[in-house]
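YM 10:42: CDP-diacylglycerol--glycerol-3-phosphate 3-phosphatidyltransferase sequence, as discussed on the call
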Amino acid sequence: MPFNLPIFLTWLRVAAIPVFVGLFYLPDSVITMPMKNMTGAIIFAVAALTDWFDGFLARRWNQTSSFGAFLDPVADKLMVAAALILLVELMRAPSWLAVIIIGREITISALREWMAQLGKSKSVAVAYIGKLKTTAQMVAILLLLWQSAIIPGVSTQTVGTIALYLAGLLTIVSMFYYLRVAAEQFRSA
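YM 10:58: structure's back
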């Protein structure tokens, strides 16, 4: 297993998950809910930034590896799943929507793994619709974690919920897109 800064950043994201989740289970006498919200949102934002940064560094420094390519999306999916489950527990997100988003992530990850085994991983590479879904998902999770007003008179919870529903819609659309692309690969084989 290679070890370099991009892989270290990915491992940090994985290590941040129990800290992120555990924060919300600390007693309010130790840390108030507004501080939990702010700290949790910051941890999630840093994790999202390191996701982009580790990939950038790996490509820039030519430190890409098959292990890094495997671990990076796993770390992302674990952090998103942990955040969504936490938001459901905090009653800030509907459980059915979290199940759809997490289910899609597992389905597409499995599809990508299968296509890679068939030597057709390029056919299910990340598409623009997937990037839109990820952006909406990250914005939604950050806003729902933060909870406090960012813009006076605008409900962060409402905007976060709308962004989460948009992410859910894009989740379904992107899943069908990837499944269609994979089906075309099978027909042409």
